[in-house]
Amino acid sequence: MFFLKKRRFVLDLERHPRLKEFNFSFGKIMKNPLSVTGLSLIFIFFTIAVFAPLIAPPPKPQEPFRIPHEGYSVVPKPPGPGHPFGTTTKQYDIFYGVIWGTRTAFRIGFMVVGSILVIGIALGSISGYFGGIVDEVIMRIVDIFMALPLLILAMAIVTALGRSLDNIMKSLIIVGWPIYARTIRGSILTIREEDFVKAAQAQGAGTLRIIFKHVLPNAIYPVLILASLDIGAMVLTAAALSFLGLGAQEGYADWGQMVSLARNYIVGPQGQPLLYWYVVTIPGLFILFFVLGWNLLGDALRDIFDPKMRRK
Amino acid sequence: MQPILDIEKLEVNFYTYEGVVQAIDEISFTLEDGDTLGVVGETGCGKSVAVLSILRLILPPGRIESGKILYNTAGSSYDLVQKSEEFMRELRGNDVSMIFQEAGNALNPVLTIGEQVSESFLLHRQGELCESVLKNIDEKMEVSGSAPFIQLARRRYGRKLNKARGNLLRDRRYGCLLRREAVRWSVDLLRSLGIPNPEQVVKRYPHELSGGMQQRVVISMALACNPAVLIADEPTSNLDVTIQAQILRLIEDLKERYHSSILFITHDLGVVSEIADKVIVLYAGTLVEFSKVRELFKKPLHPYTKALLHSVPRLGSRERLESIRGNVPNLIDPPSGCRFHPRCPYVMDICRERKPQLYRGPGGDEHHLVACFLYR
User: Fold this and answer.
1) B198, B193, B236, B187: which is closest to B38 by C-alpha?
2) Does A40 have pLDDT greater than 90?
3) Nearest-angstrom CA–CA distance, A68 and B24
4) What pLDDT score was predicted for residue A4?
5) Strands in A3-157 per DSSP E
6) Distance between CA atoms of A311 and A69, rounded to whole angstroms?
7) A191 has a pLDDT exceeding 50
8) Is the ipTM here above 0.90?
9) Measured in whole angstroms, how far is the alpha carbon of residue A290 from the centre of its chain?
10) pTM of the entire structure?
11) Does the N terminus or the C terminus of chain A have fewer Cβ atoms within 10 A?
């Protein structure tokens, strides 16, 4: 890789074809300023999430996701000593909340999109590769899901399961997998007909080997791009559900929950509409940059995965 | 001497939306051990379907309706139509393998050449690969002498290896060794096919190679396990003539070296005359003529074969090129009787009513069979 070249021990790229391709892809990302922005944003958030206990040491280490609060006054306080971003209603510390909320955001994004990927790829591959009645059944189920508005369905599921962040994640998984299943099915249908699949069969490879080694690696790119874009989107949807009051209990470090807490202070009192700007703006900005980062990264991935764009 | 492949009355249908396509209608032929059999016919006459059904790679909606495909080896005979899918998987690539038409499409774009060539070894030569890996390790240990820590390592490693022997592939740590060994074998194989710099080529992706090189790689994939029968589906039709000649010579060399029998599909009569010992001519899913290659070119019997030979352009000749009147029939509703009769200049009443069987050629020549009532 490019940064290893400076060392005395130089990795021979010619000997490692995958490394060579990775180096090429990485160089491609680094040439595009937008991609670099996306990558840096995600990297910054990742650092915040990893070092959260150092940046904002939890007063109660056994439950770090509880935002500490001093007193019960409902009126937010502006940024000041001890509270760099101020406090929101009931005196919850905004700084602590957004820092630990980064961990929550990553957890939501990775868990939801990871589960969706597994379910979607499994069902989509079965559907696309085997076809026939199995395909018909799975795709009709997908149709049913896609006929319902995503947010409303997710809300209905969370309401049925009960209010909590875990249930938001479950409901997002339930509403999210169909589009993945359909996408992967579509690309498998085209790959399945390729000669190299038949060639692998003629070499004596079994069905599982063909699906995992020959078909999926060719069919997976659209879904990976979709996934990287969806990590942001899922965090956004989870925040929306939290804002509607379906999320974690009060005081949990979650960006959506924090915006929801500050619902009554979005607009300040008569004559001073921006008096409490920090209560919504700061968690809002964190959500904005997190989603923006993933979207830019998704675009970058599309550029390097698309074989037509890749070698330009 | 038994023929290595004996195909009897093979019938393959495709059940499509428009109706049943009778792609192969009772074809019978034999492939003798060590022979090259050319399969000739125009596009859509069922050449590829016929050979794919030997490997049982006809996908739905296609189905092998009836007939036998007898594969004779080491004194025993198997009917490939009846065998289980597991048996076929063992057979494909090991005993019978296939070279595909368009090398560019037959190679997986996301895998390196090494990974693709070594797949055959990993699928069919696991035992030998394990032996070879173990031998390498033993040798290395002998070289490194008897330092105490080596002794210790050998004792520990040896115990683990003995445990792992047999299911090396399933253990991830040894699977890696096995794959590396398979790639090493691939390098040797590619070198024996005359590919320059094979150590580099195994690390390349298919798009980095030229068409001729890709074709060689595809051939090496088919040859990896020394198959008894090699099916070549138009291996040279997308190459330019100089490369074509090289590939043909390569295939002939390999046949000598590995004693394989070859089923060579092509629509190029020049190539057939160059490489084949015997020829079958297919027309619209039926076998029309089966003969030695010299005979066929010297005195073709079936009217279709004659017409086919006439429609080949000749170098230096200024004659007008002849074409066969009419079109290839629709196989959903094939002509009654002989499928060639609507286009045949010698058509008789009987041709419209009955299907011709295979008759012997003039003089009762049993090596020259023709499906035509003219030779009844």
Assistant:
1) B236
2) yes
3) 79
4) 47
5) none
6) 54
7) yes
8) no
9) 9
10) 0.77
11) C
